[in-house]
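If your schedule permits, I should be very grateful for your opinion on a structural question. I have a record of one protein: its chain in single-letter code and its fold written as discrete structure tokens. Would you kindly read the sequence against the tokens and tell me how you understand this chain to fold? Thank you for your consideration; the sequence and its tokens are set out here.


***
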Amino acid sequence: RQQRDSKVLLLGRENEADRYGQVSRFLHWTIAILFIALIPMGIFASIIPEGASFRNAYYVVHKTIGVIVIALVCIRLIWNRLSPRPALEESLTARERKLAKVAHFALYATMVAMPITGFVMTSFHGYPTFFFAWEFGPFWEPSNTGTIAWGLFHKYLLPFILYIVLGAHILGALKHRFLDKQDQAFRRIVG
């Protein structure tokens, strides 16, 4: 659509009053792509047999992406303080505004909780965490109880919450774009 438009899109690094800047857009889409990629990777990781030759290499990739995601989320939270996010669309109802704030908080909480619970579960299992070639050993002694408890959070509870919140976020964006015809709300992050 932008190619058909004759106007040049001038986009600064910082957020503006009515749209996100380059940094926020880069962080948003990079985190989204990596985080969504981790979902099927995590599901597949849980079904790899213990003795499979590729299991460790697969976990290195999965854990590295998890570390990158939590680092980018932290950078995004800092960036939101340095360059405040655009105000919500004025045409939103009070209920929609509240839902948007709850959804964003839940997304950030889930994006921080997933890698942390994965790290804690891995440590209790006695396995190291990887960031590319760097290997970080477990922070505490292995514990079956700890592995099970943190595994329940990481593999069952948080994904359930994530699917609901992420789905609501995507459906909300699509609703504003196609049902409410709020081009400006959709353009804040994509155009």
